[in-house]
Amino acid sequence: MGKVVMYGTVSVDGFIADEKDQVGPLFEWMSSGDVPLDESGRTKVSQASHDHTRAYWDQIGVTVVGRHVFDMTEGWGGTPPSGIDHMVVVSHRPRPEGWHPEAPFHFVDGIEAAMAKAQELAGDRTVEVAAGDVGGQILAAGFVDEVAMDVAPVVFGSGKRYFGSVDTQHLLEDPDVVIQGNRVLHLRYRVRR
Hints:
single chain; alpha/beta; Dihydrofolate Reductase, subunit A; two-stranded antiparallel ribbon; Dihydrofolate reductase; DHFR-like_dom_sf; 5-amino-6-(5-phosphoribosylamino)uracil reductase activity; RibDG_C
């Protein structure tokens, strides 16, 4: 079974979006360089960000997201982002009627079912859990092995929290990855067991 990594781009004050779900300048780092991050060539980052992010993306077998993110992105048009093989959507509602029946999106009710499905699909590859409310729930349930953050130099003051509504203490190890890119600091921490 692969490791479980909670991931997201986050403001220095701990938010993944503002109160209106707008990400503002959080993702400026994805257009702040001259090295294409994907085949489209639209996303260009620094060499340091490319080497770190590309290696991470290539390890991911499945990403787990909440229904809110799925709805906001319109399900990425039925194609998982970043070349990911499968998406698991935590939702009390089923797949939208008539929505891309061939798309590798799996709708499950609850975080336990989501993690079971994600680990089944990922095999020995990484299960990525999107930061936010669902990510925080999965962390609180003890499923997360590592926390990965792309910290952007912006302060929101309020908004959607990286760890969602987690209200208990969780200890992390010292960061084992610290990489500076343009407009971003890539950090990775193991969860202390």
